[in-house]
UniProtKB/TrEMBL annotation:
<feature type="compositionally biased region" description="Polar residues">
    <location>
        <begin position="23"/>
        <end position="45"/>
    </location>
</feature>
<feature type="domain" description="DUF3502">
    <location>
        <begin position="474"/>
        <end position="541"/>
    </location>
</feature>
<dbReference type="InterPro" id="IPR050490">
    <property type="entry name" value="Bact_solute-bd_prot1"/>
</dbReference>
<dbReference type="InterPro" id="IPR022627">
    <property type="entry name" value="DUF3502"/>
</dbReference>
<protein>
    <submittedName>
        <fullName>ABC transporter substrate-binding protein</fullName>
    </submittedName>
</protein>
<feature type="signal peptide">
    <location>
        <begin position="1"/>
        <end position="22"/>
    </location>
</feature>
<dbReference type="Pfam" id="PF12010">
    <property type="entry name" value="DUF3502"/>
</dbReference>
<keyword id="KW-0732">Signal</keyword>
<feature type="region of interest" description="Disordered">
    <location>
        <begin position="23"/>
        <end position="48"/>
    </location>
</feature>
Length: 544
């Protein structure tokens, strides 16, 4: 299950309900960095074909993950009646049931042609996924050839094969804090540019705005990724956190790569004694994690006192919050909600990672892997037709827009060459909403929301520039969790118990860490550390 999938349950509890990585509403698009192309049909779909029905499985709940999607699906069928001649049978399964059901689909041989593989590595190992390698970098599928570069496909291979198609529109969604800029001006303060600035601003809110919450908690892990900097940690420090599966805040083991990049210099778990951290750069190891938890303790007075008991208490009350965590992709949705109830509100955005603040190229850490994937069961009898459908989606901006934003003029309108907006008079709560992270996202086909503040627009543009990114030393490595899957499951249960206290700043930091470490030891964390070290060393040894 991919990292962005696992953020999903948290997305419903944060200040911004529409996170770009994996939203609980419609996807939030960003700027395109590629030519829009023409609307000609691809080679794969040029002639009318025999009728076919594709059985597609997405996860989601109506009005939570998708809304009013059928008209766009029928529009696709209408547009391609004389070429692809394809009918879409789309079934949505609630996330709570999807994991179990998609396992049954794979084991029972159910007639499924396209689905979201949450257990990607396991399915690939079990041989239940089709190898789609021949469809990429293939002129017979020009849409796929244009949208999926050989490097992009290679970076996302599983066990050396293309068992799934990478779906992402960028390799980051800039992490930051949204705040009430009008309040900042009221207090005569400058724009937020540091944690001290944020603290001082929240102090003023606490003193002067008795009906407001200074900082809106991100569920029961209130400050989420604040007080961290994963880019500096990986690129400068060569320190890598594992193994929260898909939730980066549940990582509990840290590995230090040697300066020469050829071996593991040290491995430690949260709460381990200082001696275990001795071979890990303290700036990105022990000092780093302790600062994160101590800062959460310092800022604790700005979040609701009942955060742990009532983590969703502020959902739908954004206008009562003076600041909160949000990725830049969720900025506009959150700002719109606040301004709908307080038209005089002015919103600002502060990136929490240094390289994002400076917009420096080559400083965003990446392994080139997508956030999400779609796959085709090996048992499908319609693999060619499914790939022709996908080729159509990625052939040009117009085709992609249909599934991402709905019907042009009805659900959305273009603004300029690379922006979009909801038409005047259309109720966003009833308008088309499709989770693009399950089908349509691609680095070459994006639009940016219209009417963004100038600085926020620059942040969007930055994250869609290829030269923003730099691959880290472990790019290409995937931790095979199978040998320690039982221990990892037990350790994640431990993290569920203690992380809310540590990331929300409740209780004594050292006491919580000590108790958590004892439970991690009992759950088998030392076995995980050894297995991780062995696998990383093997990967680095064969790296060219």
């Amino acid at each position: 299950m991919n990292k962005k999938f696992l953020v999903l349950p948290l997305a419903a509890t944060m200040l911004a309900a529409s996170i770009a990585g994996c939203s609980n509403g419609s996807s939030k698009p960003a700027e395109s960095t590629a030519p829009k192309g023409n609307t000609a049909e691809s080679t794969a779909s040029a002639k009318k074909k025999d009728p076919v029905t594709l059985n597609i499985r997405f996860f989601g709940t109506e009005n939570g993950h998708y809304r009013a999607v059928d008209p766009a699906f029928r529009e696709f069928e209408k547009r391609t009646k004389d070429t692809l001649n394809t009918t879409l049978n789309v079934v949505w399964t609630p996330p709570a049931d999807y994991g179990t059901k998609h396992q049954l689909w794979m084991t029972s041989g159910e007639d499924v042609d396209l689905f979201i593989p949450w257990e990607l590595n396991k399915f690939a190992k079990d041989g239940v996924l089709a190898d789609l390698g021949k469809y990429f970098n293939n002129p017979q599928y020009p849409g796929l050839q244009k949208a999926f570069s050989p490097e992009y496909i290679n970076d996302n291979k599983i066990f050396g094969k293309t068992y799934a198609i990478p779906i992402t529109n960028t390799f980051m969604d800039m992490e930051g804090v949204i705040y009430r800029k009008d309040l900042l001006k009221k207090y005569g303060m400058k724009d937020i540019s540091s944690y001290d600035d944020l603290y001082n601003y929240l102090e003023k809110v606490k003193e002067n705005e008795k009906d407001m919450v200074p900082f809106g908690n991100y569920g029961n892990t209130a400050f989420f990724k604040l007080f961290t900097d994963i880019n500096a940690q990986q690129l400068e420090g060569k320190v890598f956190p594992f193994t929260g599966i898909g939730n980066p805040k549940k990582n509990f083991v840290y590995a230090q790569i040697a300066d020469d990049g050829k071996s593991v210099a040290g491995v430690a778990a949260l709460g381990d004694p200082a001696s275990e951290w001795a071979n890990i750069n303290p700036k990105y190891g022990l000092d780093y994690v302790m600062n994160q938890f101590n800062q959460a303790k310092r800022f604790n007075k700005f979040i609701p006192a009942d955060t742990l008991a009532n983590p969703n208490g502020l959902v739908g009350k954004e206008e009562k919050v003076a600041a909160g965590y949000v990725p830049v992709g969720g900025f506009k949705g959150t700002a719109d909600k606040i301004k709908a109830k307080n038209p005089n509100a002015e919103l600002g955005f502060w990136p929490i990672f240094k390289n994002n603040q400076e917009l420096k190229p080559g400083t965003q850490s990446t392994d080139g892997k997508a956030w999400n994937f779609i796959a085709i069961p090996a048992s499908s009898k319609k693999i060619d037709r499914t790939m022709e459908f996908l080729d159509w989606i990625f052939s040009n901006q117009e085709n992609n827009d249909l599934f991402t934003y709905g019907i042009k003029g009805t659900n959305w309108e273009p603004v300029g060459t690379n922006q979009w907006k909801i038409p005047d008079g259309v109720d966003p709560a009833k308008n088309y909403g499709f989770p693009g992270y399950q089908l349509t996202w691609n680095p070459t086909l994006n639009r940016m929301p219209a009417d963004l503040p100038e600085q926020v627009q620059k942040y969007y543009e930055y994250q869609f520039k290829p030269d923003t990114y730099k691959k880290h030393v472990l790019a290409g490595f995937t931790f095979d969790q199978e040998p320690v899957k039982s221990e990892i499951a037990k350790c994640n249960t431990v993290m569920d118990k203690y992380l809310p206290f540590l990331l929300s700043g409740f209780g004594d930091v050292n006491e919580n860490l000590s108790k958590m470490n004892a439970d991690l030891k009992a759950a088998g964390v030392d076995k995980i550390k050894e297995e991780l070290k062995k696998q990383i060393n093997a990967f680095l040894a064969q790296k060219k």
